[in-house]
Amino acid sequence: MSKKRKSLWDDATLEKYLTAAEQLARKSASEQNGEQIAENLENLWPRLEDEERHFIEFLYLSEKRTAVALYEDGLFSGLMSKGLLQTPPGVGTLFMQYLQTTYSVPVAVWNFLHDRPDLFFSHNEKGKGRRLEELTRHFKDRVDAVLQGPAPETDV
């Protein structure tokens, strides 16, 4: 008769696994939502190039957090590297022959911009329409469309 094998998967191992999986899921959701970027946005904003700040302002004034644009445009890749834009999960290039994709402002960043617009934008209510027209003309050749974007996921 052979000895019964000892299981390597016991209650303590299961608990460690579940804890690690939960921490990883929280970290991933936090990164996807842009929470760390939003927390540091006040420090990051002055270091952005004017063109980058103008594009975020354009989206803010448009009240749309998603844009369709060329995949390899330096403006968008720069904003992506700084965490202010991201391609939504599972979205590659929309139209491969045109090398387009969608870019979205992370939810936490978008919410922070709306909570504290006075920190980032210096226009009054009357000047918003004129500024939006100006930025629309400026970005019309680089952005094919601005979209409302996916609704933020909420925990229920």
Task: List key phrases describing it.
3 strands, three-stranded antiparallel sheet, 156 residues, mainly alpha
Compose a concise summary of this entry:
The protein has 156 residues and is mainly alpha-helical. It contains seven helices and three strands.
Question: Can you describe this structure?
Answer:
By secondary structure, the protein is mainly α. The protein is 49% helix and 10% strand. It has a 3-stranded antiparallel beta sheet, with no helix packed on it. Helix 4 (50-62) crosses helix 7. The longest helix has 23 residues, at 11-33. It starts with 10 loop residues before the first helix and ends in a 9-residue tail after the last strand.
Strand order of the largest sheet: 2-1-3
Shape: elongated
Helix content: 40-55%
Low-confidence stretches: none
Largest sheet: 3 strands, antiparallel
- Beta strand count: 3
Q: What is the rounded Rg?
A: 21 Å
Strand content: 5-15%
Order of helices and strands: HHHHEHEHHE
Kindly state the mean pLDDT as a whole number?
A: 85
Count of helical regions? 7
Distance between the termini: 53 Å
Topology:
Layout: H1 11-33, H2 35-39, H3 41-44, H4 50-62, E1 66-70, H5 74-81, E2 100-104, H6 107-115, H7 125-139, E3 143-147
Antiparallel strand pairs: 1-2, 1-3
